[in-house]
Amino acid sequence: MDIVTSYRRSQIMAGIRSKDTQPELIVRRVAHSMGLRFRLHRRDLPGSPDLVFPRWRLAVFVHGCFWHRHEGCRLAAQPKTRPEFWRQKFEANIRRDRGAIDQLTGLGWRVEVIWECETRNPVEVASRLSLATTGR
């Protein structure tokens, strides 16, 4: 049973954004502090990656664990109400993500997915970005 009214739940859900999320801002801050330069949300690329590092032909997606179903993550809890609706929605998100990654790879781009829960450790994010951009 939901503890808020359906109107309030609608307001909460409407407030969830796809761009400039807190995890994305953390990754951007880390990348910038490392001296890496990037473009945001390039709409000419499949899936409109959150960060694009043209110099390394690297596309980075910062995925929310709940919406993109980070396997094994506690943040990817299954909603109890309307399970069929949520199952279809999550499956569509996963298919769309997989398609965008496959298309980018086919175009010669490397793809890195950073999960929301991983952004809690900026040192790990820096390590991942360093490895993806310089190979060290």
Automatic annotation (TrEMBL):
What name has this protein been given in UniProt? Answer: Very short patch repair endonuclease
EC number(s) reported in the record: 3.1.-.-
Pfam families membership: Vsr
Protein species of origin: Rhodanobacter hydrolyticus
**What gene, per UniProt, encodes this protein?**
vsr
Q: What GO molecular function terms would the record report?
A: endonuclease activity
Which function does this protein serve?
May nick specific sequences that contain T:G mispairs resulting from m5C-deamination.
- Give the signal peptide as a residue range, or say none if absent: none
Q: Which UniProt keywords apply?
A: DNA damage, DNA repair, Endonuclease, Hydrolase, Nuclease
Which family is this protein grouped under? Belongs to the vsr family.
